């Protein structure tokens, strides 16, 4: 199926399925619908028979006119035509209805499986895969797959009809049947040529549209910056050529698509002319009846449509198959984080021990090498260091979002790989720098980790954080709507909600990436108080950005290029004049209330 992937950017987890495997997977989705599919198949045969019967009945009528017996057969023939039409409509209705249901059900399950697979993926998957691409696999790729199933049913119906008509024609006149069949290679050849052109232009159109999308996405993402620098004109000027290009390419695509049908009509017209000529002569020479002649003329039309659609929609068919391949690759993507056991976790004390851990996002260039660290249960540890030192990486390993390559990570003395991952994660409270709030009320967000938490529990958690004064500042208290992504709340309020949420979760280990955005002194004090409550009695790993945090933690760990270069508490490390002092001078010094520009440096010794 390699050719199916032409021009599509492959993801890491993409794979090529053999035709047999792909078919097996597709059929596995259709198998539960076997009953409905048998019904659809029966309807397809009946509809095709009905379609082939109409010209046959009319040809008998024409023969009857020629023979002068039309008066005897007119009514039965009219009745038969009417009946065929009505039955054809009924069969077609059931065919369409049941095939729509089969396709709908299959897409429903495929989408459910794809979404479930997305939820099961490790965080590393989301770091590496742009979210837009994941969304398109779950939505448009499954839709493309549905198109295949609809097309397949249509094609089967049309192929059957062509089969029936061919048999009829050969029964009437072998010579003229062969003449009619001459049109087949021409139509197929043209349709294949069209397919190549259509594929190339469609691909270009898709690419140009994705350029437009990317440009729009970036504009929307940075709209605040663009507006504050009054760059609207420049943004517009950048958009213009990209949009124009998309217009041109789409126009070309439209031209190719609208050119093919007139060309195919022309071929069918020429074939009809030939049949009129040869058939007419044959009728005059009494070698053929007028009815047969009519049947052949109809045959060209009946032939023409299915053949063109089979050839012309072949590329759509391929597109759908490759879409199904992409969806299956998403479903089958192997997990990066591999658990060797699923031991019950119980309530954790929270002792964490890295033993000779080596880890790299790309295993070829490790971020941590033979890394050792022991954090005692209930200890609060601050990780500090320059950007890229490995602070977030350590926290991602503790939350088990990434798989390490060597060494061991022990939690309460037990190998992290042997624990039940779901249970383990429930005891880890992770707070990112910019806490994410889901749309809903503040109370909904606080209740998020434990939906069965009562209103009183939610209120108690909110009040425990920063004395609860912050709730009064919200327009509707805990019932305040947080807006999309929590935009209706200030940064500080979002952090307070995240801390209250953590209290409801009641984790044994907290991994907190402190916000760098500064908040007003009152909120700062509330957050600090909130932190004191949340971190008490729990093992806490804080990626520290605030002076008040590093002043109060049990131990500060200074990281540099994935190694611990110094550790101890704040006064000890300050007095030592080592690497910590460099970090302090760079990131924390200016946060002191006594700070004056250019002052407050701690001396760095030669150690
Ligand atoms: N998802 C990722 N894929 C590949 N490399 C990564 C990824 N995340 C981090 N890295 C690399 O790993 C190294 C450590 O990064 P890490 O994010 O742990 O640093 P940090 O100390 O938390 O920095 P910061 O304070 O800027 O967040 C850096 O060299 C970084 O480029």
Automatic annotation (TrEMBL):
Occurrences of domain ABC transmembrane type-1 (ranges): 38-319
Locations listed in the record: Cell membrane
Principal location listed in the UniProt entry: membrane
Keywords: ATP-binding, Membrane, Nucleotide-binding, Transmembrane, Transmembrane helix
Sequence intervals crossing the membrane: 34-54, 74-94, 145-170, 176-194, 254-278, 293-314
UniProt entry tagged with the keyword Oxidoreductase: no
Domain of life (superkingdom): Bacteria
Family annotation (InterPro entries): AAA+_ATPase (IPR003593), ABC1_TM_dom (IPR011527), ABC1_TM_sf (IPR036640), ABC_transporter-like_ATP-bd (IPR003439), P-loop_NTPase (IPR027417), Type_1_exporter (IPR039421)
Residue stretches making up the ABC transporter domain: 352-586
Membrane topology note: Multi-pass membrane protein
Any GO molecular function: ATP binding
Pfam families assigned: ABC_membrane, ABC_tran
Name of the protein: ABC transporter ATP-binding protein
Organism: Nonomuraea ferruginea
